[in-house]
Every structure is written in C-alpha cells, then in structure tokens.
Amino acid sequence: MKKVLAFIVFATLIVSCGEKKEEKKDDFKMNRTKKETKAAASSDGVPVDLDNKGIGPVTSLQFDAEINTDMAAAGEKNFNVVCIACHQAEQRGIGPAMKGIYERRSPEWVMNMILNPSEMLQKDPIAMALFEEYGSMMTANNLTQEEAREVAEYLRTL
Length: 158
What we know:
Elements lengths: L1 H16 L4 E4 L2 E4 L37 H15 L23 H9 L1 H7 L1 H10 L10 H11 L3
Antiparallel strand pairs: 1-2
Helix pairs in contact: 2-6, 3-6, 4-5
C-alpha cells in the first residue's frame, strides 16, 4: 500500500511540474513565461538608434545621393588630424570603429557628437552607453560646423 501511495504522489509531482505556470485570481490571469525583448545593438553592445538626432546645433541633415568627393577629402584630412587617435575605420580603438557608422547612428547624431560631445555625454542615452562601453569621453575637438560636415561626408566613404 505504501508503494502505491508513493507512486501516486510521485506521479502527481511529475504531472504538476509539467503544467503551464499560470495563476488566475479574480479574472486576472498571469502568465509566468519569461519573455525577453532586446533593442538592436551594434557589435560593441551599444544600442542602434537611427531616430536619435542627438543634442546640439544640428537638427536636420540629408546626405546627397552621391558622395561629395571634395568634401570627403577635406573631411579625411581633419579625421586624420583630430579623430584618428581614438577612432579607426574598421577596428575598435579608444572609441568605436567608424565604418558603417550611419547604419548605427543618424547623420545628425554624428554631427552633434562631433560638435557637442560634452552635453551629449551628459544627456544623450547613446553617448552615455558609449562612455560606459569604452570608458573614455570624447573630447571637444574644436571643429567648425563646416569641418564637422566634411568629416561626416568622409565617414560615408568608409
């Protein structure tokens, strides 16, 4: 008899463990199934956000269909003087790699990060996540808006 009782208890435990975990209380149904949602993230784990325009003077920027080669050449010169110490084209350095930047950030965000890094690092969630990931702050580089636009054009060529 003890064996039969033990078998019934054991069978009941097995059946109850396999049940869907739902609780119902006064017409309130709760499903305990864990659902995980993640925002798209780049290879460095920082969220991708093409809608974020950043914080700064640039509120709208539309690239022409064709890359302006003169502007990109001027931007490459500035990039090689100002940016190259922290940013490489294809590999992570002190800061993120720049190749494919416009697949991760809006043109306005890139321009505002170049022109207004201090305020961006204080208020922009993506800039704060980048600081968290890389552990270093982007410094003010004193480029004019025109020079920053040239660098932005150069980044399209990477």
